Amino acid sequence: MKTESAICACNDFVVKFANVNGSGSASANELFARSILRMGVPVSPRNIFPSNIQGLPTWYEMRVSAAGWLGRRGGCDLMVAMNPQTWDRDVAELDPGGYLIYDSSKPLPHTKLREDIVVLGVPLMEMCSREYADPRQRLLFKNIMYVGALVALMDMDSAVVEQLMGEQFKGKEKLIAANLRALHLGWDYARTELPCPIGLRIEQAEAVGNRIFIDGNSAAGLGAVYGGATVAAWYPITPSTSLVEAFTGYCQQYRTDPATGEARYAVVQAEDELASIGIVIGASWNGARAFTATSGPGISLMQEFLGLAFFAEIPAVVFDVQRGGPSTGMPTRTQQSDRLSCAYASHGATRHVGRLPQDPHE
Predict the structure, then answer these.
(1) How many other CB atoms are found less than 10 A from the CB of residue 339?
(2) Contact (Cβ atoms closer than 8 angstroms) between residue 96 and residue 116
(3) Which one, of 229, 262, 257, 258, lies nearest residue 243 by Cα?
(4) pTM of the predicted model, to two decimals?
(5) CATH number at residue 80
(6) Structural domain of residue 29, as residue ranges?
(7) CATH number, domain at 322?
(8) pLDDT tens, 197-255?
(9) Domains in the chain: how many in total?
(10) What is the pLDDT of residues 171-183, one digit of tens each?
């Protein structure tokens, strides 16, 4: 089932991974995206994980664009279909002439396959069962194997991926060796059994410039460091948790006395959202630059304290990483419905300053 008019593009296409939640695929997919960026080609990934439990569908989409475009454009040029439950939907999303990569350890699903796409099978589970005895390793290294196959199919520099693995697992030599082995298993299979390279290719470029690979929450955490924040008080809530985690990591790197090892910052996990904003107000009252991060339910609980801060003229910063509501809502579905509740938080004539970044630069 191979089309005569396969898509051919260099440093400008869309790749999408269809996986299942809890399989460890997001880390492998991000490794692949980082490898493209390391080769000097801008890439904009998006992890699509609906509010569900382990084993249900998740997707990871990335746009590769030498021109630096960030937004998706609809459809995709290459689909890595690892979830039989979403097979029909995933295959339908491919543009004509696109490439479909799947685990050929089992027969194709009993559905009519399109004649206008290129189908490439890699026996991932079969190779994992042969190479690894531990079930968890089989699950995790299957993802690294298909990354290795993609590196070969797109004629990428495998040394770039190997270097990134070394950086990711620095000091954990056993993990580096195991992941490199899985990477080369996928790479070797593709080089010997599949037509390499395919029409989609990554070539070394110099188009990245000063860009870095970062998500919104990490950017906000880094911005808090540059903004002089020394105190963060929070209560874990999706999807804002990673913001404070990022701030903590950057503070460990940049706010720790190199001579004594003393922390020049404080990160406090409070017992609830009310306590977290109270700690922020208290820290700010004592002269520290302080902030908290939360989502819609936390904003609702903080109303009275936000009013206190307003009328007592105590500065406080709240990062509201918004999600679908109301109440606990859908933690991994984002929207912008909290704007009014933030702008007029409290029970009186309050008007808070609000900043709404619309793109990564802002």
Answers:
(1) 12
(2) yes
(3) 229
(4) 0.86
(5) 3.40.920.10
(6) 9-201
(7) 3.40.50.970
(8) 999 999 999 999 988 899 889 999 999 999 999 999 999 998 899 999 999 999 999 99
(9) 2
(10) 888 889 999 999 9
